[in-house]
Amino acid sequence: MPARVVVGTQWGDEGKGRIIDNLAGQSQMVVRFQGGNNAGHTIVNEMGEFKFHLIPSGILYAHVTPVIGNGVVIDPRVLCEELNHVEARGISTDKLKVSGNAHLIMPYHILLDAAHETMLGRRRIGTTKRGIGPAYTDKAARLGIRVQDLLDKKILRQKLDTAIGEKNDLLEKVYNSSGVDPFEVMEQYAGYADRLSPYIADTSLIINRALGRGEQVLFEGAQGCLLDIDHGTYPFVTSSNPIAGAACVGAGVGPTAIDEVLGVCKAYTTRVGEGPFPTELSGSLSEHFVSKGGEFGTTTGRKRRCGWPDLVILDYAVRLNGLTGLAITKLDVLSGLEEIKVCTMYEYIHNGERAHYVDFPPHQSIFHHCLPVMQSLPGWKEDISGVRRLADLPKAARDYLDFITAHTGVPINMVSVGPGRDEFIEV
Ligand code: IMP
């Protein structure tokens, strides 16, 4: 399977980093294709713990070429910091390739993200405040500054002058806050240009050549399906498309190049930020997931909202991504529960009429008021972190996995049972 896409099937934080780390060992190239440093992956290996927000975690393997594709928005300050951090730990960054067509996150994007959230008040999105939305806004408005602009200081200055005039007006006159100093930004970005220029490349060409040679290319999705700007729980979404189709656009490969799409699904559900969440729990059950699953964001440190597994959402992810396989993560976190409640459809009561949705509801106003219809499955008490074969799992755990496969019709390829690099069951 030369080209494989890995995507999140929920609201992000499914544990994609671990799965990607596992698959990267079998790949020659790992490509990020959307999002930016709103994502966060924690990798634990023999060298210790690594946290990545931008660089594909494949950089930890000497044989892997890590690629940041054109669909990513790049905060060059963060990229430089990550490069310095990785190099300080003795890992070479020489193979990294960064698309010249990727857009840059500028200081005013970060200020605008925060100012906009403050203006929205109670209706805020709960963004990571990393400037992601404003950077994609400028890309669509054709006001964006791209990585390749770093290579030409004259062009960089011209583009900055055009953009900063408008952004400072917005910040000062609309949001009543302070703007940015164009000279300071120019100086700062000229410094990033010097650091980053060796990595800038025609990544679409490089990826397609690798595919042509029959190499294994892994496309690494960030966030998750329900945060997709087109198909997610809009407006409580991110500003990119975290679904598999975006790998083509965000990396510059044709759809016929993709052979396999692996959906990563946490054994329960979590969400950070605002927005609807039908199976959300509160009280001691939610605390079980938060404490046992360590449910705090890698990027913002925010406590994640937790809930029961939701198969309506998973079916939706199967449909939108054309999933060919599933990786179920954090199955060990379910150990110790008396029962596992699985949402198999939604109930929606409107004007006294009761309707049921087995498919993801088509409109936001319906989804916001849906109640989950749950099926109860028996839980298990055993510690499963040492299990490496499906057959050695407690019967209730196997039944839970079989229930997911029967419901979605998608085979489970991998199951994670602990945070360590080897705490996996490969099916
Ligand atoms: P933004 O991507 O920073 O604009 O945030 C928009 C929404 O996406 C917010 O609800 C964030 O919490 C959520 N979000 C963005 N990136 C991630 C992620 O990597 N994991 C989980 N949620 C995310």
Describe it for me?
The structure is a single chain. With 427 residues, the protein is of the alpha/beta class. Among the domains are: 161 residues, Adenylosuccinate Synthetase, Chain A, domain 1; 94 residues, Adenylosuccinate Synthetase, subunit A, domain 2 (Orthogonal Bundle), CATH 1.10.300.10. It is 33% helix and 21% strand. The strands form five sheets. The chain has a ten-stranded mixed beta sheet, sandwiched between helices. The radius of gyration is 22 Å and the shape is globular. 46% of the residues are buried. The structure holds inosinic acid. The site of inosinic acid (IMP) has 21 residues, from helix 4.
Supply the CATH architecture of the domain at 3-99 and 200-263.
Answer: 3-Layer(aba) Sandwich
Estimate percent helicity. Answer: 25-40%
Rg for CA atoms: 22 Å
Shape: globular
For the largest sheet, list the strands in their spatial order.
9-7-5-2-10-1-11-14-18-19
What is the element layout, followed by pairings?
Elements: E1 3-8, H1 16-24, E2 29-32, E3 41-45, E4 48-52, E5 65-68, E6 73-74, H2 76-88, E7 97-99, E8 103-104, H3 107-120, H4 132-140, H5 153-174, H6 182-196, E9 200-201, H7 203-212, E10 217-220, H8 245-251, E11 260-266, E12 269-271, H9 283-293, E13 305-307, H10 311-321, E14 325-329, E15 339-350, E16 353-357, H11 364-367, E17 371-378, H12 395-408, E18 412-416, E19 424-426
Parallel strand pairs: 1-10, 1-11, 2-5, 2-10, 5-7, 6-8, 7-9, 11-14, 14-18
Antiparallel strand pairs: 3-4, 12-13, 15-16, 15-17, 18-19
Helix pairs in contact: 3-4, 3-5, 5-6
The chain binds inosinic acid.
Inosinic acid (IMP) is lined by residues 11-13, 38-40, 125-128, 130, 132-133, 222-223, 227, 236, 238-239, 272-273.
